[in-house]
Amino acid sequence: LKISDLAGGWKVPQKAFTKKLTCTYTLTGDAGKTYEFAFTDLKNNRFLGGGSGTDECGTTDLKISDLAGGWKVPQKAFTKKLTCTYTLTGDAGKTYEFAFIDFKVGTEANPCGQDYVEVSNKADFSENPGYKKCGQSPPADKFSSTSNVFYVKLVVGSNDFAKTRFAAEIKSECCFFIVHLPDFLPLH
């Protein structure tokens, strides 16, 4: 497909699919130009790879400043098994404390079964030890980020998807200073 022919947008499929299939498209633009590609409407899709991309996950790239009143997942009850991966980005130079305030993810508390939430400083969740939680009450311990970006993965692999939920508070960890006044300053 020539990108110049798609100026008004591009819709797939033109007619409803009638069977399972895989479609591969090659988009060709003008030499020397770069292009930005963005989905504007996704319905009934399932993506393979680094997350589910389903509408049920909600927004997956989040600004921490937009979550000042807390963060709740899902917005509406899940209707199927899924995996949601979120990227949370805060102000440059800051670190953050992440604490669950409501938590219903799986029936087992330890070890986690098919349902869990994992929070990590690494996009591939390879941190050791990891912060992986499950159960029916908010974990007592909190996650502390090492930078202004961290990742949250929710895996719902059991049939309890409609009951799965969590809410979290995210606070900036900053600076605590102890100031010692010199003895010669008056205190009145």
Could you walk me through the main structural features you see in this protein, from its secondary elements to its overall organization?
The radius of gyration is 22 Å and the shape is globular. It has strands at 61-63, 71-73, 82-89, 95-104, 115-120, 131-133, 143-144, 149-156, 165-173. The strands form 2 sheets. A 5-stranded mixed sheet has the order 1-3-8-5-6, with no helix packed on it. A 4-stranded antiparallel sheet has the order 2-9-4-7, with no helix packed on it. The protein has a domain at 45-173: Sandwich (Jelly Rolls). The chain contains no helices and 9 strands. The chain is mainly beta. Residues 44-53 have low confidence and may be disordered.
What is the 3D shape? Answer: globular
What does the oligomeric state look like here?
A: single chain
Q: How big is the Rg?
A: 22 Å
**Helical stretch tally:** 0
Keywords: Disulfide bond
Organism: Echinostoma caproni
Disulfide bonds: 57-84
Protein name: CUB domain-containing protein
Map the helices and strands:
Elements (H helix, E strand, L loop, with lengths): L60 E3 L7 E3 L8 E8 L5 E10 L10 E6 L10 E3 L9 E2 L4 E8 L8 E9 L15
Parallel strand pairs: 1-3
Antiparallel strand pairs: 2-9, 3-8, 4-7, 4-9, 5-6, 5-8
